[in-house]
Amino acid sequence: MDSSSLTFGYPVPNAALQGAGRFVWEWPGTALMGILNLTPDSFSDGSTLTPPGAASKHAHNLIEDGAQVLDLGGESTRPGAEPVSAEVELDRVLPLLRDLRGAGVVLSVDTYKPEVAAEALRAGAHLINDVSGLRDPEMVRVCAAAGAPVVIMHMQGTPGTMQKHPHYDDVKLEVQAYLEATAVQALAAGVPSVILDPGIGFGKTVAHNLALLRGLPELVALGYPVLLGASRKGLIRALSGEGPASERDPGSVALHLWGALAGVAMVRVHNVRAHTQALRVWEALREA
Ligand code: HH2
Q1: Is the pLDDT at 95 greater than 90, yes or no?
Q2: Which residue owns the Cα nearest ligand 1 atom 2?
Q3: 76, 93, 109, 152: residue to mutate for ligand 1 pocket, most atoms within 8 A of CB
Q4: What is the pTM of this model?
């Protein structure tokens, strides 16, 4: 099985020291990033994690189910979502982040705001997941200074407007070119490593999403770890006719197994247990 790795400038669960101040986490196959939306308005699970203790319990359940990374988000980025201030985002994310410091998994924070990233990294976050794809140059400086790797996700427009009129001449080439150029710049500026994410549903029609999913092997071939996040997204309803987000786990598994077949290093999912089982079966079959 192929393996992937990320480099950090500080100790991280399961990472090995490789040279001065360089800690490398290497994993085989496709790792599971469990989603923790600490928001009242996320599209699939908004508000369910806001009562005290509920988020921590859910986080530990995700770890027990097989999550190697937890992604904590304090602002919804669903289509039409309103931004919140850095203070609100930090108030939602920091308590759980501190609570999870000894949990033995990689802690990611889903933010495009450099001030949130800086504070989260000080509080024990290991990885920054930037859905704006490092649009703010300050984000590169923050991550380089801290020694933090970054998920660079592609988004056309902003969450408020992105689904109004998405347009590309060649979606696959444009997304790939953006991700590659941004990765090269980030690494040159001192970010220790990056993960690339085509941003399913972020300023894309169904046809755009399908072209990106079919083009995953070419994105993987660039040589960077690739993350796929299709969990419970509207694309699944569009392709299957099935209703609410909470009922889209079978479609999520189907799309993420497609990603695993293409060689993606990580999938970002709500239902970790279902994905653990699907990936174990699929990987055993592949290795047989
Ligand atoms: N999708 C969402 C949020 N963050 N990050 C990455 N890297 N890739 C994604 O595809 C991605 C992401 C949207 O999903 P969710 O977190 O479930 O909803 P919301 O933004 O409404 O909280």
Answers
A1: yes
A2: 77
A3: 76
A4: 0.96
Q: Which pLDDT value is given to residue 239?
A: 97
Quote the ligand 1 centre to 219 CA distance (angstroms): 19
| Closest to 233 (Cα-Cα) out of 207, 215, 212, 252 | 252
Which residues have any ligand 1 atom within 6 Å of their CB?
35, 37, 39, 42-44, 73, 76-78, 110, 129, 131, 151, 153, 197, 199-200, 227, 229, 268
**pLDDT category, 91, cuts 50, 70, 90?**
very high
In this structure, how many other beta carbons lie within 10 angstroms of the beta carbon of residue 109?
29
Integer CA distances (angstroms), 231 to 46, 156, 273, in order: 14, 19, 13
Instruction: Tell how many helices (H) and how many strands (E) occur in the chain.
Output: 10, 11
Residue 117 has a pLDDT of 98
Tokens (6 digits) for 92: 């939602």
49: confidence class by pLDDT, cuts 50, 70, 90: low
Which ligand 1 atom is nearest residue 200's CA? 10
**How many CB atoms are located within 10 Å of the residue 20 CB?**
5
Please give the pLDDT value at position 163: 84
Atom of ligand 1 nearest to the CA of 159: 20
Which of 38-42, 178-182, 214-218 is predicted least confidently?
38-42
Angle formed by the axes of helices 206-214 and 171-188, nearest 10°: 60
Which atom of ligand 1 lies nearest, measured to the CA of 37? 22
